Amino acid sequence: MNKLLARSLVFLLFNLLLMNTGKAQNREPFVRIARIVVDSAQLDAYKSILKTGIETAVRVEPGVLTMYAVQDLKAPTHITIMETYASKAAYEAHIQTPHFKVYKSGTQSMVKSLELVDVIPVIYETKKPK
User: Going from the N-terminus, what domains does the chain have, and what CATH number goes with each?
Assistant: First the structure.
């Protein structure tokens, strides 16, 4: 099973579980978008640290549901990350983890700008397996 499908299934199962227990309205997923501009001379190093941080977070943190990082085709130093957590508490736990702190300190000199945007999921659709 590929990673995207596995993550999507975890998100779907989590939401079904919450709906069945009547707690869905009290534990909405927390979604954040990070818009980052990276120093062009350090872009490859940044992406390497980012990859390790995202893979670790998704693998070891139950509250991390999805993390997607994309690079702008026309402006390759512009990275956008969409993060979905089981709850705001799961996000707050994430930023206290050793792997997040390694990412943050390791990329601090590489990041020229950072904009964090909290968003509300309007429609969350994932292709289901046939």
Answer: 27-119 (3.30.70.100)
